[in-house]
Design a protein that fits this description.
four-stranded antiparallel sheet; about 35% helix; about 475 residues; single chain; Late blight resistance protein homolog R1B-16; ADP binding; leucine-rich repeat; six-stranded parallel sheet; Arc Repressor Mutant, subunit A; alpha/beta; 16 helices
Length: about 475
Amino acid sequence: MSLIVVNSPNKLVERKSSKKQVGQIIVGFEEEKNLIISQLTNRLAELDVISIIEMPGAGKTTLAYKVFNDKSVTSHFDICAWCTVDQEYDSKKVLHKIFNQVIGLDAEFMEDFDVYDELRKKLHSRSREKKVALHGKRHSDPLNLRLLRQEESWELLEKKVFGEESCPDELKDVGEEIALKCEGLPLALDMIGGVIAKMEVLNNLKSFKNEGEVMEVIELSYYHLLDHLKPCLLYLASYPKDEDIRISQLNALWSAEGFVEQNAMKSVEEVSESYVYELISSSLVILFNERGIRDPSIKIHDLVHDFCLRKAEKEKLFGFVVGMYDKLPENYHLRHLRLLKRLELPYITLTDSLLNEIGMLVYLRCLIIQIKARAFPPSFANLLNLETLVVHNVSSTTVGEESFPVLEELQLLYCSEIKEIPDSFGDITSLKSIALESNSQLEDSALRIKEYISEMTGEDKLELKESLAKIDLFPYK
């Protein structure tokens, strides 16, 4: 039997900060959890859909998380998977997310691959009763999720502000009034608790008595962030809603935008990670981790995403052009984007002229592209600031020997026709990792480069990533 949860968070990662618990504090919904578990485990092996409905911020994802990770559920189902679906979704990508978890492989760029058919076969073959199908008519009555009761609201706020300690008696009345003003919304309680916890509680708790609207709470939380954290938070809205974001990705991306720089005491990676956990402690960012994957990921709530997107566009941090393209028109040009630091076009096949124009973007730090040319154009020699290069390629036969003097990460994914990585990449002293997928013939040249760098520097500094378990496939979506 199989369980697929849609719009569910990943498995929670427990992590402690210096003062408070970092992560999600869960209060309430025991009755609702037990009801859903009973519906899931006491029925025949046929398709069923259980919907949880309520206003944003009411705790739907939290309840789904509790159910998904309950021992009685994980022991009952042979296959468990979860995915998120936004209001504007691509059904193919949703199927791919489920497929990746059920099959254990990534078929995102196998154009002729019938994911629906293969997923149906896999669910059949791995189900005890062999009665699971991807179509059916049974739907349980939707669960109209209640808001938190007053005592649950106060319990959540108290835990968020004081951790394992109890609220002082002289502040309890004020605290309970704040909880009442949040009207049972877990998101509002979590946000406002995060703000209070970062401040001097005794002097500032009363100033939050009249905060009730969720957006006002989010704005308040944002206002109290340190200045260097604000653009880092807004940047997360460049991802789709409900997208899980690997913490390891943010090192390159924040660095490419100039948000993070190393100092005398910490590397870029260490500074970036400290920023992530500061944002988590503010409750604006939620820490999760997929089952079986060590690399933690983060998410932001839909309402936080809405706030950050509006704020980012107002601050001119970035903007969105809505549309679905697999190929850009011939009259598209990039020369007007010469100050660009990050360019991602992983799903679009670039024309030769556009590929050549990328070489004009001399400030690029992060480049993610899919190409069908036989080699990089000579103009790529101008990309002297490039730190991260990710190539999705189905027909090229060589990787250019252009000099990328500050390149730190090279990913070659599904590049089945590439024969080798030029030895000249071994002369890039900043190179930290080479990631390969679906091309075993590149392993020899990657290993040769690793050995060369070790011999020249006396350090084993180059990391080779050669398996799905290690590579974060198409991370910068």
